[in-house]
């Protein structure tokens, strides 16, 4: 079995066995096929023999109706080898006699018509069916296969053993010796020459094995001599190359070395990380493949990569392109590499990815801009909120006294004073509208948010604004189906869309296209044009676009500032987009402006979709208190730090037969109630007052007389609105300036008077 340890021997034996097996299988298959055909032919011959020897006697017995003889003959047929079933039927296919049984489906079947000549005419008297089985044939074939395979296996085994022994004697043992000798060959030492143990035979002289042994000896000598010559120089070179390679690849910046034609010769590991190119992929190619802008290749070539280039490195920034097409900014330092004789060897470039540096700078710039914008808007909001209270107090007096004066002058014979008063009232109301716009911009309260169907809102707004447009302006609405609702104040949302549509209409000067688009979007990265915050996630996008004059770039940054208008003087208040900014950001929404001078603008609103499980804020109304007796002479305490306001309210209420007491100090009001807790039926107070605010005063008064009705008024207060006033226990919350009729009506509702 030692001979089988040789891999070549095992392989040779395997091939012999495989080949012999294939040949055996093929020859056996042919032999079986021939035997099978012969067996089938034999079965058919047996049936033909039955036709010749037995059919006539069976036919005669059937003609004479000798059925016992028929049965005997049929039984005799089934005793014939391979005949397993015989059946005789009359001319109507009725079985007369049968013998044997069919217990297999693999058979040969044949039906023979029986005819008898009678009066010179052949008459069919019946049929005989003969069935022969193939089972004996199959068994014969199986036995044949077994015998063939066993004999062939023995033959193959004996032949393989013989060939193996011959091959081992002539080849294998010498190859093993040559292999053992080759394994002993060392680069740095000599070995004894190889000598084969072979019998002297003229047939084996100078054969392949002997020539192989001589070649091995020659190779061993050559290797030793070559190694001796190269060892010293190779050792030094390898050491230097290893040091250089380690230093070259340890540098974290990308390094590329090119020849005088800027073809890449060498790169370091960092270069592969930066550009995703291996050295094999780009070696021999020019550095043009690395530039984001191909033209830069020629520009830099003229500047830095020429025969006169200075060896002193110079630093510059340029954009590069990676293998996947992505672009990154690189800080590059490069220069010429010259030999000691000043001849140009090539150029070296050191590239540092400054993407993070650039992104950080851009992010810092954006955040600084956002902070400045936020601080500016906050300052404007504080300013508008601060002046709103004083404005409304002044307007309350102006409008209130104007209404009182109008009542006195209604029966005057001279219409001019009444006309003058009406003009004063109109001017005051316009001033009030402007103050409300300022408050809308600065107010933090979200109004009355509710789920709004924007598609319906768009159609309502366009129905209102369409008549104000000339027919030369084409209005187009595109809205996706199944757009979710948004949680907004309906009036404020109506105002936003009206402002944008009016601005678009005015920008087109009577001719163009105004488009309104509504769709659901998923924003990956966008910057709000007003607050400069990032916009990400799912939003409802409402866009209003026009083909008007567009907005100049130097005006674009300030279009959301109050009183900043792009329209000619006198054609706009400059509050439209400020209001849009204020409303949107109270509802966590954003706006993006795209504009091009002379081509038009697109204002896109991004509003969060309304989630069904969100609930809107509701105001808990105070419990109703019993109505005060109408017959009583009602006494009202009026508290406001503005003298004009308290005197106006006193005049108005006393005109309607109410008894009043006035004070401009909230501290004094508390003192009055403390000393006379049962003298007053109603208190009307301002919210913003020195020393003590209206809500603080109300809390103290409720501790003294908890059931007294109170009306809280305010020109503007960021912390206190209708919701807070009603939760505090006030009966009413009124915003200044208050219409005279509405003030009287509110008092009457509370006091139960007419």
Please provide a brief summary of the model.
The chain is 48% helix and 21% strand.
Protein architecture, described:
With 754 residues, this protein is α+β, with helices and mostly antiparallel strands. Among the domains are: 135 residues, 2-Layer Sandwich (Beta-Lactamase); 103 residues, PAS domain (Beta-Lactamase), CATH 3.30.450.20; 161 residues, 2-Layer Sandwich (Heat Shock Protein 90), CATH 3.30.565.10; 117 residues, Response regulator (Rossmann fold), CATH 3.40.50. Helix content is 48%, strand content 21%. The protein contains 19 helices and 21 strands. The protein has a 5-stranded antiparallel beta sheet with strand order 6-5-9-8-7. A 5-stranded mixed beta sheet has the order 11-13-14-16-15, with helices on one face. A hairpin with a 5-residue loop joins β7 and β8. α2 runs antiparallel to α3 and α9 runs antiparallel to α10. The N and C termini lie far apart (129 Å). About 3% of the residues have low confidence. This is histidine kinase. Its EC number is 2.7.13.3. It comes from endosymbiont of Galathealinum brachiosum.
């Amino acid at each position: 079995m030692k001979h089988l340890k040789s891999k070549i021997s095992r392989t040779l034996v395997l091939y012999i066995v495989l080949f012999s097996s294939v040949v055996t299988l093929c020859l056996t298959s042919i032999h079986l096929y021939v035997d099978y055909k012969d067996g089938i032919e034999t079965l058919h011959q047996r049936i033909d023999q039955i036709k010749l020897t037995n059919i006539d006697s069976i036919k005669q017995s059937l003609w004479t109706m000798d059925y016992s003889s028929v049965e005997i003959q049929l039984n005799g047929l089934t005793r014939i080898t391979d005949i397993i079933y015989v059946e005789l039927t009359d001319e109507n296919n009725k079985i007369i006699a049968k013998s044997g049984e069919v217990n297999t489906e693999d058979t040969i079947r044949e039906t023979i018509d029986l005819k008898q000549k009678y009066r010179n005419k052949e008459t069919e008297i019946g049929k005989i069916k003969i069935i022969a089985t193939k089972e004996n044939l199959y068994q014969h074939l199986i036995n044949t296969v077994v015998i063939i395979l066993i004999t062939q296996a023995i033959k193959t085994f004996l032949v393989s053993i013989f060939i193996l022994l011959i091959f081992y004697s002539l080849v294998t043992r010498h190859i093993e010796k040559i292999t053992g000798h080759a394994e002993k060959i060392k680069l740095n030492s000599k070995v004894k020459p190889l000598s084969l143990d072979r019998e002297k035979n003229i047939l084996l002289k100078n054969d392949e094995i002997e020539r192989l042994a001589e070649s091995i000896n020659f190779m061993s000598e050559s290797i030793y001599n070559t190694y001796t010559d190269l060892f010293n120089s190779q050792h030094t070179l390898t050491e230097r190359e290893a040091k250089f390679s380690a230093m070259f690849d340890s540098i974290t910046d990308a390094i590329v070395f090119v020849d005088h034609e800027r073809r890449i010769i060498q790169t370091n590991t960092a270069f592969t990380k930066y550009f995703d190119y291996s050295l094999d992929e780009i070696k021999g190619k020019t550095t043009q493949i690395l530039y984001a802008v191909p033209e830069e290749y020629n520009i830099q070539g003229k500047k830095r990569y020429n025969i006169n280039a200075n060896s002193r490195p110079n630093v510059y920034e340029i954009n590069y392109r990676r293998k996947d097409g992505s672009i990154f900014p690189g800080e590059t330092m490069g220069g010429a590499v010259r030999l000691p004789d000043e001849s140009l060897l090539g150029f070296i470039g050191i590239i540092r990815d400054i993407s993070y540096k650039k992104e950080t700078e851009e992010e810092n710039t954006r955040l600084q801009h956002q902070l400045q914008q936020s601080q500016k808007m906050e300052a404007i909001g504080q300013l508008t909120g601060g002046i709103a209270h004083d404005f409304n107090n002044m307007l309350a007096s102006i409008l209130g006294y104007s209404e009182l004066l109008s009542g006195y002058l209604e029966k005057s014979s001279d219409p001019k004073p009444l006309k003058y008063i009406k003009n004063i009232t109109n001017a005051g109301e316009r001033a009030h509208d402007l103050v409300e716009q300022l408050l809308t911009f600065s107010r933090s309260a979200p109004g009355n948010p509710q789920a709004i169907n924007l598609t319906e809102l768009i159609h309502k707004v366009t129905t209102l604004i369409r008549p104000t447009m000339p027919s030369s302006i084409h209005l187009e609405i595109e809205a996706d189906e199944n757009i979710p609702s948004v949680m907004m104040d309906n009036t404020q949302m109506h105002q936003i869309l009206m402002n944008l549509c009016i601005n678009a209409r005015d920008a087109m000067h009577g001719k163009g296209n105004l488009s309104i688009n509504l769709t659901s979007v998923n924003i990956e990265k966008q910057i709000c044009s007003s607050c400069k915050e990032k916009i990400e996630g799912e939003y409802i996008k409402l866009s209003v676009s026009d083909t008007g004059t567009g907005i100049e770039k130097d005006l674009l940054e300030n279009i959301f500032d109050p009183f900043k208008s792009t329209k000619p003087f006198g054609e706009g208040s400059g509050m439209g987009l400020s209001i849009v900014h204020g409303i949107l950001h109270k509802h966590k929404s954003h706006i993006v402006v795209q504009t091009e001078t002379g081509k038009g603008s697109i204002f896109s609103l991004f509003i969060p979709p309304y989630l069904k499980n969100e609930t809107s804020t509701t105001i808990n109304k105070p419990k109703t208190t019993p109505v005060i007796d109408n017959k009583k002479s009602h006494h009202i305490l009026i508290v406001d730090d503005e003298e004009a306001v308290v005197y106006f309210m006193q005049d108005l209420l006393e005109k309607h037969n109410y008894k009043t007491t006035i004070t401009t100090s909230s501290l004094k009001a508390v003192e009055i109630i403390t000393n006379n807790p049962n003298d007053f039926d109603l208190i009307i107070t301002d919210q913003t007052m020195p020393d003590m605010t209206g809500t603080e005063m109300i809390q103290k008064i409720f501790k003294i007389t908890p059931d007294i009705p109170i009306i809280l008024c305010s020109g503007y207060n960021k912390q206190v609105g209708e919701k807070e006033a009603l939760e505090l226990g006030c009966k009413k919350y009124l915003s200044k300036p208050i219409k005279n009729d509405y003030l009287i009506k509110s008092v009457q509702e509370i006091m139960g008077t007419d």
